[in-house]
Amino acid sequence: MTELQAEQGAPALDVPRTEAKPRRNRDVVIALAVFVVLALLPMVFSSKLLLDFVIRCAAYGLFATSLNLLVGYTGLTSFGHGMFFGLGAYGFGLMMQKTGVPIPVAFVATLAITFVVALVIGAICVRLKEIYFAFVTLAFQMLIHSTILSWVSLTGGDQGLRGGIPRPPFWGIDLSNHLHLYVASCALLVIGLFLMHQIAQSPFGYTLRMIRDNATRASFIGIDVWRAKLTIFVLAALFASTGGVIMALFVSGAYPEFAYWTISGEGIFINMLGGVTTFLGPMVGTVLLLILNDTVTRLTEYHGIVLGIVILFFAIGLRKGLMDFVVEWYARRRAGTGERS
Amino acid sequence: MDLDALTGCLASSACLVTQTTSGFIIGMLLFLVAVGLTLIFGVLKVVNFSHGAFYMFGAYFAMTAYQLTGSFALAMLCGATGTALLGLIFERVFMSRVYGSDVLMQLLVCYAFVLIFDDVVRMIWGPEFKSMGMPAAFQVAPLFIAGGVVPPYYLLLIGVALAAAVILGLGLARTRLGKVIRAAAHNPGMVSALGINTGLIYGGVFALGGMLAGLAGALAAPVRSLTPGMGFSVLIESFIVTVIGGMGSILGALIGALLIGMIRSFGSLGFPLFTEGLMYLFMVIVLVSRPTGLFGKEVA
Amino acid sequence: MLEIRSLSKAFGGVKATDNVTLDFADGSLTAVIGPNGAGKSTFFNLITGALRPDSGQILLNGVDMAGRSPPEIVRYGIGRAFQVASIFPSLTVEETMLAAVCADQRRASVLHRRFPLAETRDRAEHAMELLGLAVKRNRIAATLSHGDQKLLDIALALVLDPKVLLLDEPTAGMGTEERWRMIDKVRELWEKQKITVVFIEHDMDIVFKIAPEIVVLCYGRILATGTPDAIRRNEAVIEAYLGTEHHAGAAI
């Protein structure tokens, strides 16, 4: 565009990012409200199918949103983020099966293990350039997957963790009760999203954006790029791991598929479906993908073709996620300039 | 882990020969697939995550051609040319639309096609395991070298693959077309400005890569069972090969493929469940110490 | 303030910077000129740490910068704006400034508070106002005009409170009208902030009108330094420019 057009306010290039106003209180209120609505849902709809759907959304949603922190906010294209989902599931499952610790302890311990693994892997990978970072994260994920498959005595190999996951009640909560599991999953989801949103809207979150846009200049400003990348890599891993824990509780076990590269692929697809420029894009994408999966597998045995065509439609046709469209439409309605509120 | 089996084999020349030959054919088949992958990356700067599908189609085309005509040569031809055509169409119609986009987008498009192709195969040929069977010409007694068993068909396989490698290497280095392709890899804008149709080149490279993978599939058809998922494990392994060897390097693909072939062959003796783990471990080590691979060049 | 001592850098056989010794006085405004390939950008790259000198010293208030990393050099107080504006396309002007100040205050890793931090507002505001970008604070950087992006680039360097500001061809890619506006802005900045400013420039009319001090580089060596008048009369300079730049001739 010419300078004149720019002065007069040409429409925004690319996809505008709507950042939430920096008011944490508003987020807290929203989080509480959403949690209450979700928790009360079973009273209105007593369908087990719906509750199951929400629990799965919680698991995948946390995973996909954490992936967006890496890909969308920092520009770190990880092909192996699924390894932490699997690690969370197996870590938690094994801990509950082998040791008699209470669930909260096992949960924290799982996060601790994920922290260490992510720290080591991240320290090795994060300095690599984009596509090599993608490759090596994939390699690490498949390495972990192979280890899970071959360490039969510990993990049950390709059969997965058998025998269910013991759920001793804690704090009056009994996770073998489906309703309790449902509410706990919703709580974890809401808390997880709130924390991730806080990260995204903190000064650190803007540091990540600077790294994504222009890592060299960011470094000139005095930002330690390597350390920032490592930090978000580890933080994202923790949330992905939490998703894995929810999944393990849901299926009462852990399976090698939870660490397979397809989980990472689905995470990327979810982000693509929902859009990476908004915080809630991945959440929307999760809901869309799960609905898509469920519908397609019910209608036809050839879900590969249908899913493939849908992916093509989004990747080649739309090139944007759902939330991206929403945001653009909204922005165009408001002003039609390159402005942000 | 079964280290005794491994050391035992290394001590026996018979086992050594058998395993080495086995490693060789795995390696040569992988090479054919991987070299297509590395070429496509080198020239088009795209990682073709659906490359395994060409391998799969090559095998299925060959099997069907053999069942219809009974001619092994024709089966090989069908396998190779069918996939060449597929590669050309795939590139022109779909891949060309995502060249500018980032690698996530390319990954998604290829992933979509993996899903689609697998189901297409399932629809046309059915989900069960199929086999082509060894053509009569090769149903001869195996050779015994130092006590080890070497089916003659393996020798043919290795021969064809090596021939392909040599032709490819020489073709790229010596012929004018080869030079044009290499130029297009470095500076497509310039090549286009010189009046050469880069679209044709891109399509051609993709067709070539597809053909090589299809040839591998066709060659493998007599000795492997065919199933809709067969493209996938080949893809993963050839991906490891190209990364280890270096994206864009044909020599790297050869060396990498042989390495992986040997790891698979001997590794499955000593680490029957962790064989793939060994490959990923190797991949991690290479990527961390030399991200561009053993023979790779820095990608802009 | 900034003393360059025997700075040298060679690429293969080519001496990009050849034994350069210069002094930039505190609060001075200097233009670095020279024909293409004279080594002006290399000179800047050496000072800012993008390149490592083969030999020589870069003394900022007595402390040697040679061999240090670019972020370190920035912390010591050498700021740089780039020939091609190096900004953050998806951030707004205001966000860019606030984030930069945040980073400078070593608060770039703060997780528990919300962006922007209150203590970053003043400096960010000041920098935006200096460059005339305050009115465009909510524009996304990618949508700014080329000239505004260069201003943002300068603001990004300025907001870190540098002692020395290096501007790499601030008027590159602009039409004549815009060039004068930009260079006026640069001069205005220099007068207000009282920092040492060095800028690379190709437009001789601008250089001779604006800069109190001029350094002429040629083949990596200093051809001449001095006031515009002195440079205009310098025989070596005239010879270097004759046939390639008619401005020098016109100036005589």
Describe the structure in your own words.
The complex is a heterotrimer of chains A (341), B (300) and C (252). Chain A is 73% helix and 0% strand. Chain A has helices at residues 3-7, 24-44, 48-73, 82-98, 103-125, 130-150, 152-155, 178-201, 203-221, 225-251, 261-274, 281-299, 303-318, 322-334. Chain A has a domain at 22-259. In chain B, a hairpin with a 2-residue loop joins strand 1 (143-145) and strand 2 (148-150). Chain B has one domain (3-126, 152-289). Chain B starts with a helix and ends in an 11-residue tail after the last helix. With 252 residues, chain C is of the alpha/beta class. Chain C is built from 10 helices and 10 strands. Chains in contact: A-B, A-C.
Task: Provide a concise account of the structure shown.
The complex is a heterotrimer of chains A (341), B (300) and C (252). Chain A is built from 14 helices and no strands.
Name of the level-1 CATH class of the largest domain in chain C: Alpha Beta
Q: What is the N-to-C succession of helices and strands of chain C?
A: EEEHEEHEHHHEHEHEEHHH
| Computed structural class of chain C | alpha/beta
Helix-strand makeup class of chain B:
mainly alpha
Count up the domains of chain C. Answer: 2
Question: For the report, how would you describe the main beta sheet of chain B?
Answer: 2 strands, antiparallel
Order of helices and strands of chain B: HHHHHEEHHHHHHH
Major sheet description of chain C? 6 strands, mixed
Quaternary? heterotrimer
The radius of gyration over CA of chain C amounts to 19 Å
Helix content of chain C: 25-40%
State the end-to-end CA separation of chain C: 32 Å
**Low-confidence parts of chain B, pLDDT < 50 over ≥5 residues?**
none
Widest β-sheet, arrangement of strands of chain B: 1-2
| Number of extended strands of chain C | 10
Q: What is the end-to-end distance of chain B? A: 42 Å
Poorly predicted ranges of chain C (pLDDT <50, ≥5 residues)? 247-252
Number of helices of chain C: 10
